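U., I forgot to send this yesterday:
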Amino acid sequence: MHLYVTGGGGCLLRNYSDIASKENVTFIEDICANAKGYEYLAMQK
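Result:
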């Protein structure tokens, strides 16, 4: 399973945990990524 970490909290995880060393983790550094995703879902209705 692959983990995608988004938003500002992801920046903290990347800098202060050992999760960043895992190869199945992708960090999306855009702090607006969550809002963009929800906006996309809202437009689908």
